[in-house]
Each structure stands twice: as structure tokens, then as C-alpha cells.
Amino acid sequence: QARFLASVGALELKVFFVSAVSFLAMHAWLLSSPTQSHSFGKRLVFWLLVGCLCAGLFYLRGDSHEGNVWLCGYVLELIFSIENVFVFHVIIEAFRCPFAVIQKILAIVICCQVGFQLLFFVGLSRVLLQASFLPYVLGIWLVGVGVQTGLSQHDHFELKDSTVYWALSRVLGDRLLPEYALDGSFVKVKHGSVRMTMLAAVTACLLLVDFLFEVDVTLAKIEEFDYSLLNFTSSAVAAFAVPDLYFVAQRFFKRFTLMRFGICFVLVFYGVLLLVHQFVDPPPIAGLCVVIVVMTLSVLLSWALGYECNDKEKMRESAVGQDTAKFSKRSSKEAGHDDEIGKNVATVPDTPKIVQT
């Protein structure tokens, strides 16, 4: 903590606050028009340029070493963020999240991730380092998720058959509602009891996974660069690019259907690396190269074997979630049947309902 406070400088604080305000303003605008298609690729390029600009500011300050540390830390965080994107995709697909809900969830997760990063760089990571079992737990979970992703048939997927929903329903019972609220509520009051919506469930799952992954990248950066505030600001700026990185990747996942098996391999690959991290610890760039090769092969095979989805309308509905508008147009009469829906919580539909509150 003392090292972190001693490293506080005016430029570092300006970089963080300007980036944070830009991120919050951008997502506030996106959430105000959730059913419109947005240029995720352009915004991803914007955040990459912001990272380069921030690194340039440190170089211009006259300290090339600090500039190198910041830029390397930024790239390292982006590499680890790609791992997060694969896991986020699997979880969000399992919960059948509508587009408007995904944007809100990712904005919340990234804000919490920046908070995690601050705690870790202040000193919490040193404490978590003593919990040597965490990499093994996360590794086993990743291998299991990867195998299940490869074996599952998404076209005939039912939420009630997923392991995630089964575990949550066992813990929460009838307090778990298989529906999303149009107003973005995490909880709803029905029949005098407070119940958790699917928005709260998927957010909790993503936060848990993000927390565990952030431990890994934070420890890697601390071991490589002992510059606390530089590490934190580079991690935060890189994290702001994750939502757009997710949506860009999702478009590829929807278009090239064999990428599902590429995702399966990547998850198992990262899981195995965590399980054998004491014996094999390849540099992050090596893992990134493996991911690029595997996903490129998946794209080429999808194209060569005819597993490419060229139906732009279908892709738009699937990847961007235009079906959200369909639910938002429910009549007030239909929306008035929430109590009736609440009586049938035990019967979980294929896709969680979106209900007006």
C-alpha cells in the first residue's frame, strides 16, 4: 500500500480519470438506445488508440522507461482480456442474455474489475497469493466448461438443462426467476418475497470469474513490473476496451460456427495451463499465438466446409440482439400478467422471459 501511494503522480491520475469518464459516458449513451446496432469495431479501435496515446504521454514526459512499462502492461492486460472474452461468451450464451442486458452487465463487470485491480495493486494480491489452490479450482472449472461447450448443441439448448442454472436453482430455490426485467432490475418483489432475476445471476457469475482471472494477470504484472500506479492505470485503460472486444468477437463466433470448437480448445488450453502452472509457465504472448492460430483455423475450416453463416439478418438478430425490441413492444395487457408468470417459476422456458415491471 505504501509503494502504491508513493507512486501516485498527476499524469497517472489524469490518464485514469479521463479514461474512466469517457467509458462511463459512452456506456450511458449506449444503454439509452439498447436496440440499435453500434459500431463496436470502431469503438474498439478508439480504445486501442487511447492506450497508445496514454503510452505516448509517458514517453513525452521524458521517461522512456515508464513509457515502456505502461505500454507493456497495457498489452499484457489486453492479452489476458482475450481469455476473459472467451469465458464471458460461454456464460452469456448459457444465460441467453438479450443484447440490452449484455451491455449493462459488461459495463457493471468492467467497473467492478477496475475496483478489483485497485485492491490487488494496493496489496490484496499478495494475500491471495497464499491461496495456492485458486489456480487449480479455476483450471478444473475451465476444462469442464470447455468440454461442455464442445459437446453441447446450442441450437437445442435449454436453460433449465444447464449446470449453471441447476446450481443456482439448488441454492436459491424459488427465489430465482428465469426472466429478465426490461428496466434492468436485479431483483423483483413477487408475492411478498424478494426474488433474483437472471440479470443478477449472470452478473454474479461473471464477477466471480473476472475476479479470479484478475488475480492471475495482476500477479503477472507485479512480477514483471514493480510500478504500482503505472500497472493499475494500464490495466484500467485496457479493461475499458473489453465490452467492445467482446461484441466484435461475438460477431465472429456467430458467423463462423466451427469457432465453437475453437472456443472449446482455448478454454481447455487455459485450464490445463493453470493446472500445470508450477511446471510449465509459458509467456502470455505464446498463449496469445496459440489462440490466434486455433481461431484462424476455425474460421478457415468454417469457410471451407460451408459452416459460415452469411445470413446478415439472422446474424444481426443473434449477435446484436434485435429480438430485444420484440420483447419491449409487449402490450400493457400482456405485461400485466407478471403475477401469473410468477406462479410458474418451476417451469423454465428455453429462453428466459423479458418482462416489464
UniProtKB/TrEMBL annotation:
Calcium is among the record's keywords: no
Q: Which residues are listed as membrane-spanning?
A: 15-32, 44-62, 68-92, 104-127, 133-151, 227-249, 261-279, 285-306
- Spell out the residue ranges making up region: Disordered: 319-357
Q: Where is the composition biased (Basic and acidic residues)?
A: 331-342
**GO CC list:** membrane
Which UniProt key words apply to this protein?
A: Membrane, Transmembrane, Transmembrane helix
Q: Which InterPro entries match?
A: Integral_membrane_TerC (IPR005496)
Q: Which Pfam families match?
A: TerC
Topology in the lipid bilayer is annotated as: Multi-pass membrane protein
Where it sits in the cell: the answer is:
Membrane
- The protein depicted here goes by the name Uncharacterized protein
Q: Which organism is it from?
A: Noctiluca scintillans (Sea sparkle)
